[in-house]
Amino acid sequence: MKVLMFGRGVISTLYGWALERDGNEVDFYVRPGRAADFGPSVDLDIRDGRASRKGKPVQGAWPVTLREDLEADHDYDLVIVSVNHDQMDTAVDFLSTRIGGATVLIFNNIWTEPAAAVASLPRDQVVWGFPGGGGGYSDNTLHGGFAKSVFLGDVDGSSRTDRHRAVRELFTAAGFSISDVADFRSWLWFHVILDAGIMVGWLRMGSFDALVRSRPALREVVRLVREMIPVLRAKGGTSRLGSAAARYIPADIIGFAMHKLLTGDNLYTFIMDQAHATGHIDFEAQAIYPRDVLADARRLGVAVPRLEANEPAFGSGSGGD
To answer: Ketopantoate reductase N-terminal domain location, by residue (predicted)?
Structure first.
């Protein structure tokens, strides 16, 4: 398959490398002028979770093909979009006149209504998914990794198309396992709420490591997530297994489980450590999640007193100090 990765970010590079290793032709679209800045290769220092739960170390230079233009008559089969959720409008607007006959895999967080976010793209060409990786760049070196599993989900019948099946086959052929999500709209919104809770805890504690080593801080994360679930429902989402667990299982138990997971010698901890060490998750990347959830809570009239009490840590005027 001929694949275009939209941007040369962390997720695009991780999964672009994995797909090319399986024999696919992979290019990267970058903004005009950026190809010279990035150069012809990426130095990899990553862990490949397809081979083992802790991830097989991969190091070395990987030559990449960058392009700064995209015509509507291109011959790409698939365009993979993985951007920050606040960059979605710009990405979709750019692709709306250039997508041609390609499938578009949306591979990132969404807090707005998913169908509305991609309304300018042909509905039957959109596939929804979410990665299981992360990390960050230090100069031209990518530090991070990805798990064996990726998520593919359904938004208004999108999983019943040949394009969805083709994307599924692409990833399974490359050695990934697929976690299917029936209600991807609610899944995505819950993921943003979970991120919002974690980011508030991270900002309050000063570092990810300090957060995950503090059981009281993790319990507070659970309480924040629990408080934000009504925002999800007010937006039209449904309570999934994860949100139900956050509502009904005591915060002490979930906090203990999170502590064990996030302080263990595992791939997820490694990925988060690399994201933190490289500065990939800076103040703005942290603050945007609780900020956006709080804005919708206020718009919808949902009370979130715990989140509001933490606003000084993530509000637009705090500046990360």
So the answer is: 4-129
Whether residue 243 is predicted with pLDDT greater than 60 in this model: the reply is no
Q: Are 8 and 28 in contact (CB under 8 A)?
A: yes
Going by C-alpha positions, the residue among 197, 190, 203 that lies closest to residue 255 is 197
Residues 208 and 83 in one domain: no
- Rounded Cα distance between 297 and 47, Å, is 38
**3-class SS of residue 276:** helix
Q: Report the CATH number at residue 82.
A: 3.40.50.720
For the whole prediction, is pTM greater than 0.85?
yes
| 255 assigned to some structural domain | yes
Distance of CA 125 to the CA centre of its chain: 20
Tokens of 20: 């090319």
Please indicate, yes or no, if residue 320 is contained in any of the structural domains: no
Domain of residue 35: give its range: 2-182
Residue 229: count other Cβ atoms within 10 Å of its Cβ.
Answer: 21
Local confidence band at 124 (pLDDT 50, 70, 90 cut-offs): very high
pLDDT exceeds cutoff 90 at 208: no
